[in-house]
Every structure is written in C-alpha cells, then in structure tokens.
Amino acid sequence: MRHLKGTLAVTALLTLALPLGLGxxxxxxxxxPRVINMTGTDNMRFQPSAITAKxxxxxxxxxxxxxxxxxxxxxxNFVMLKPGADIVKFVNxxxxxxxxxxxxxxxxxxxxxxxxxGGGETVTxxxxxxxxxGKYTFFCSFPGHYAGGMVGTLTVR
Length: 157
Known about the structure:
Helix content is 19%, strand content 34%. The protein has helices at residues 2-17, 24-29, 87-94; strands at residues 34-41, 46-47, 50-53, 58-66, 75-76, 79-81, 110-113, 117-118, 122-128, 134-139, 151-156.
C-alpha cells in the first residue's frame, strides 16, 4: 500500500508538471536540426552556396560529392572557421595535412568541419549557427579548392 501511494504521488506530480511546460526547454534544445542538402562537384562549387539561418539555429549539412575522379584527386568537405580567422593562412597550412586537410596546429580556429567525401560519398556534420548576426564563409579545404572558388556564405539573421 505504501509503495502504491508513492507511485501515485510521483504520477500526480508528473501529471501537474507536464501541462506547465516543465521540461519544454530541454525538449526544444534537443529538437531536430534543419537539414541542408548540399553537393560538391568536379567544378569545385557548393550547391547551394548560400545558406540563411537564425542565430543559434541547429543545422545539419549533408554534403554529397558527385565526381568521376578518385577520392585522392577530388574530394570535398565543409569547413567554417571562427570569426577573425584567416582563411587563406588556414588553407595554405592545411594543404599538406593529409588525410583531413585540416592543419593540426590550426584546429582551434575551426567552428565546424566535416570529413572528406569522394565521388558518390556523403558526409554529415551538425552545428549551431553563430549567435552573432553576420556573414560567415564556408569552404572546402581540399588543396586548391578554396582558391578555385569552392566557397559559400552562411548569413545569420
């Protein structure tokens, strides 16, 4: 009988707490991210190359590489650096950093980076958009791709 009363008391408390929205913040923080399907091709371009997000919005980038070349010759990733980081310095330092093409000494500058995807492969990366409104550049760090124009813009507003 005592066990039954305890169970009923806990059930009553939970029944009262749920309508009041207790735990709603936890549920919102675990909401599914918005999925952005993106492709990278042999012409070294992202499609789409522009993304708009709300400050702090959860995003999931699904990057598929369409290429007929071997992965060693043509692969793509999605990289975005923290504000103020020098992208040119980063890609130059990362050009020889096989197999990820992310320079270990500059990893602290990375806001988000996916793995590399060769032809027919897909990689996924999740992150929260920066909280500060503005324009953020994303790029591919595979050697020569940034210089070749494989860049895009995340606009946070």
